[in-house]
Each structure stands twice: as C-alpha cells, then as structure tokens.
Amino acid sequence: MFFVFEGIDGAGKSTQLARFNEWLELSGRPVVTCADPGSTQVGEKLRSILLAKHSMPIHMRTEMMLFTAARTQLVEEIIKPALAANKNVVLDRYLWSTVVYQGHAADLDPESIWQVNRVATGGLMPDATFVLDLPVDAAMTRLGESLDRMESRGTEYMQKVRDGFLTEAKRFPDQVFVIDAMAEPDDVAKQIQMTAQQVMDSRREAR
Ligand code: TYD
Question: What architecture (CATH level 2) is domain 2-206?
Fold first, then answer.
C-alpha cells in the first residue's frame, strides 16, 4: 500500500508520519518511508536548491519542474521497486504539494501541473493521502522563527496553500482524506489509523 501525508507547513506532519510508520510496522509488512523532494541523490540536490534560502532567481515554472523532476526520480528509484516488492510506502508530500504550492498559491494553472505530474509519475497514485489541516495562524505559530524558502512566503500565500489542499481533496473523496490537525496528537494519530484501516479493508474486499 502507498500512503502520502500532505498539508501546510507547521501542520505536524513529521510527528504524525513517525507515529503512522510505527503503527503500520505492526502489520508485519516492511515499511519504506521517504520525503518528496528528497530521498534520492538527485532529489536531495534539488531539495537544497528549492528550499535553502538564497538569492538565485528561480522562475515559478522552473520551480514546478524541479519539484516534479525530483518526484520522477523518487518514483522510479524507490517507490515503484518498493511496491513491487510488496512493501508499504509512506511518503512525506507528493504531487498535491506541487499542484497547491506552485499552482493554487502561486500563479501556475493547477490543471497544467496535474498534466505534467501525470507524465512525471507515470500516473502512480497513492492508495490514501492524508491532508493535515489547520488554520494558518496556528501553523505559523508552530513553525516559529527559522523559515525555509517556501515558508518565508508569508501568511497570505499559506492561506492559499490551505485552501488549495481543501479544494483538491474534494476532487478525490475516496483517496484524499482531510484530517483535523488542531486536535490532540493522539487523536490525530487515531483518526489517521482508522482511515488507513478502512482503506486497507476495502482494498482487501475488492480483491
Ligand atoms: P517539508 O516537506 O514540509 O519538509 P520540512 O518538514 O523539512 O520543512 O518542506 C518542503 C517544502 O517544500 C514545503 O514548504 C512545501 C514545499 N513544496 C512545494 O512548494 N512544492 C512541492 O511540490 C513540494 C513537494 C514541496
């Protein structure tokens, strides 16, 4: 099974990813976890270009293509082989982030980003995606002072990111699940596990 975690910066994704992995490992199947962009040599290089604070000009379309290129490498080098070996894959962000951060919140057309990403990933879609959702003010408070290149884009941008995720989630009600990230971490974790269990059960029944 292939699971993805999405959401605005400061939603508590790292904590919930770690908890989810622990839970999933109890199923006995090996779990491969990775981060998008990253987890491959090319991906890590692109990640540092995209996220480090620097003064190098990067056009929004270039930014979109670099995030997407990192994803292609991740899919081919890590995700597809892991799924073929019957492992579970848990991924920190996927194509929704590009559709939202470079599309809904920036000035690129979300539909074009979908098209590029369908080609870039060979159409590989997760079994379930969890969008950790919370108000932007709360997210910014959790982030604190040290912000990366994306996080420095400010609250107005982050509001569009949040709205973008909610809009995109509505398009895939059976695959993309909005999780209230304002709840207590234990309750957030339980909500995610319950949803994942339902998806796993429905996959088993469909077989
Ligand atoms: P994130 O995954 O939150 O990692 P960390 O926890 O180390 O900050 O950071 C990745 C940042 O990149 C985040 O601000 C979202 C942004 N991003 C995009 O703008 N587009 C994309 O396609 C992806 C995958 C991420």
Answer: 3-Layer(aba) Sandwich (3.40)
SS3 135: coil
Helix (H) / strand (E) element for 177: namely strand 176-180
User: What's the CA-to-centroid distance between 101 and ligand 1, angstroms?
Assistant: 9
107 vs 98: CA distance, rounded Å: 12
Ligand 1 neighbourhood includes 98 CB (under 6 angstroms): yes
pTM of the model: 0.97
Give the start-to-end residue ranges of the domains of the chain: 2-206
Strand order in the sheet with 88-92: 31-35, 88-92, 2-7, 128-133, 176-180
Average per-residue pLDDT in the chain?
Answer: 96
The residues, any chain, with a CB within 8 Å of residue 15's CB and separated by 6 or more, are 185
